[in-house]
Design a protein that fits this description.
The protein has a seven-stranded parallel beta sheet with strand order 1-2-3-4-5-6-8, with helices on both faces. The mean pLDDT is about 95. It is built from ten helices and nine strands. By secondary structure, the protein is an alpha/beta fold.
C-alpha cells in the first residue's frame, strides 16, 4: 500500500486516491460530520401507480431505507434515537439529517417545507441531504430547495443508477435518462448541490456500459457521486430472478476494477460519497462478499495504488 507521502492526489490527507466525503466534510466543517438517516415514508411514484407498480426491480420493501429510522416515529424521535447511537462513536461530531427512504420530494410543497425546516432545527445540524427521483422535482419544489440551500449546506441526491434506458426499462425504473436531465437542470439552474447515484452490476450491463455511465455524468455539474454495488435482496423482483438462476452478480475483482476505472474518468472535484453500498445482512441474497465492506474499500485503495493512478487522471473535460 502506498503511503500518504506517495499519494499524488491533492484532495487527500491519507492514502485515499479519490475525493472522499469524509475529507470534504472535515475540511469544510473542521470536525467529524455524520449523517442521520430518516424515513418519512413519502412513497414513490413507481409504487403507487403514478409511474408504475412494484417499484424498481432492485429496491427493497423499505424503499432503500433499510438503515433509516422508523417511519412510525416523527422526525425528532427518529433523529434522537439514531444520533444517540452515532454519538457513541463520534461524541464531538456534528450531523446532516438525511431524508433517505423513498422519494423525498414526492409531496406538496407545504408538506416538504415543514419537513425540511423541522430537520434544520435539530441539534448540531450543519446541513441537509434529500434523496429523491429526478422526476419528482418541478419548478415549485426546485424553488423550495433553493430556499433551503440559502440556509444550510444542502445536497439533493438523485437516483440515476444508469444512463442506459434499456437497462432502466428492464429494472422497471419508469424513468429515463431524459427524465433525469430535466430534474437535474431544475436544480443546476438554481445552484443546488446535486449528488448522483449509480449502480454497478445491473443485469444486462457490461463493463463498457458501466464506464459509459461514469463518463457521461462526468460531463455534468455535480457536487458528488455515490457508486453502489447491486445488491440482490429477498422479496424483490431481482431476488426472485436470482433464486431461479436467471441472473448473475459481479465478483469482487470485477467490481473493484470497474470502480477504479470509473474513478479515473470522474473529475477530481467530484466528491465520492460512496464506493460501495450496504445491504441488510438479513435481506441480502448476493453477492455475500459485499458484507465485507471495509475489505472492498481496501481493495479499491490497493488497486489504485498498484496502478499508481487516482480520481480524474483520465477525465476529459
Amino acid at each position: 500500500m502506498n503511503t500518504v507521502k506517495d499519494n499524488p492526489f491533492r484532495f487527500s490527507d491519507d492514502n485515499k486516491r479519490y475525493h472522499t466525503y469524509n475529507y470534504y466534510l472535515r475540511h469544510r466543517f473542521g470536525k467529524k460530520v455524520f449523517k442521520v438517516a430518516l424515513n418519512v415514508d413519502l412513497g414513490c411514484p413507481n409504487r403507487d401507480g403514478t409511474k408504475g407498480l412494484g417499484g424498481c426491480a432492485f429496491c427493497s420493501a423499505k424503499k432503500s431505507g433499510d438503515f433509516a429510522g422508523d417511519p412510525r416515529d416523527d422526525i425528532l424521535t427518529q433523529f434522537e434515537q439514531i444520533s444517540k447511537v452515532m454519538r457513541t462513536k463520534w461524541a464531538e461530531g456534528v450531523c446532516i439529517p438525511y431524508f433517505q427512504a423513498g422519494s423525498n420530494t414526492y409531496a406538496d410543497a407545504g408538506t416538504l417545507r415543514e419537513m425540511y425546516e423541522t430537520a434544520l432545527t435539530l441539534e448540531n445540524c450543519v446541513g441537509l441531504s434529500v434523496a429523491t427521483r429526478a422526476d419528482c422535482i418541478d419548478e415549485e419544489k426546485a424553488d423550495l430547495l433553493a430556499m433551503i440551500a440559502e440556509k444550510t449546506y444542502l445536497t439533493v441526491e438523485l437516483g440515476l443508477q444508469t444512463i442506459h434506458d434499456e437497462t432502466a426499462l428492464r429494472m422497471n425504473r419508469c424513468h429515463t435518462y431524459e427524465d433525469f436531465l430535466k430534474g437535474y437542470e431544475l436544480l443546476r439552474q438554481r445552484g443546488i448541490n446535486v449528488c448522483v447515484h449509480i449502480i454497478n452490476g445491473l443485469p444486462g450491463e457490461d463493463h463498457d456500459m458501466m464506464l459509459e455511465t461514469a463518463r457521461t455524468i462526468a460531463g455534468l455539474e455535480l457536487h458528488a457521486v455515490k457508486i453502489h454495488l447491486l445488491h440482490i435482496l429477498k422479496n424483490t423482483q431481482l431476488g426472485e430472478l436470482y433464486e431461479k438462476g436467471r441472473i448473475d452478480v459481479m465478483s469482487m475483482e470485477d467490481y473493484v476494477n470497474t470502480v477504479c476505472d470509473q474513478l479515473e474518468v470522474l473529475p477530481e472535484s467530484f466528491i465520492i460519497e460512496r464506493v460501495t453500498g450496504d445491504g441488510a445482512r438479513s435481506e441480502l441474497l448476493a453477492p455475500l462478499w459485499s458484507l465485507k465492506k471495509l475489505c472492498v474499500m481496501n481493495e479499491i485503495d490497493k488497486e489504485l495504488g498498484r496502478r499508481n493512478t487516482y480520481q480524474g487522471i483520465r477525465f476529459v473535460g
